[in-house]
Amino acid sequence: MIVKYIDRAMSKAVYNKLDDGSFSGKIPKCPGVIAFGETLYQCEQELKASLEGWLIVKLRHGDTLPVISNISLNKRKASGIHGEAAIHG
After folding, report:
1. Total domain count for the chain?
2. Which domain does 66 fall in, by range?
3. Which of 5, 20, 25, 29 has CB atoms 3.0–4.6 Å from 47's, for a disulfide?
């Protein structure tokens, strides 16, 4: 599931060619995931590494992740009687 999430997130990446001929890249739905590279390929590889690190930190801290292409890595919250019992029990 994580590999598919990363692939889908990378398909949403936006790249720009900078004045010095290098590239920047970001994934708009993933705030703070940004990378730079001398070539577009290098930028893409750096962006993927940045995304992977970002995901590790977010998952470790239990932060809510953006849903990308209908893929959610967020834990589902308990609902109904069982969920209420767990909260109030």
Report:
1. 1
2. 2-88
3. 25
Residue 60 in tokens: 């470790």
pLDDT per residue as tens digits for the range 33-53: 999 999 999 999 999 999 999
Is pTM, for the whole model, over 0.90?
no
Give me the mean pLDDT over the 51-71 stretch.
95
CATH number of residue 57's parent domain: 3.30.160.250
CA 2 to chain centre: 10
The C-alpha angle 40, 4, 22, rounded to 5 degrees, equals 10
Q: What's the CA gap between 37 and 6, in Å, rounded?
A: 19
Torsion angle (degrees, nearest 10) of CA 80, 88, 58, 65:
30
Nearest to 48 by CA among 34, 31, 29: 34
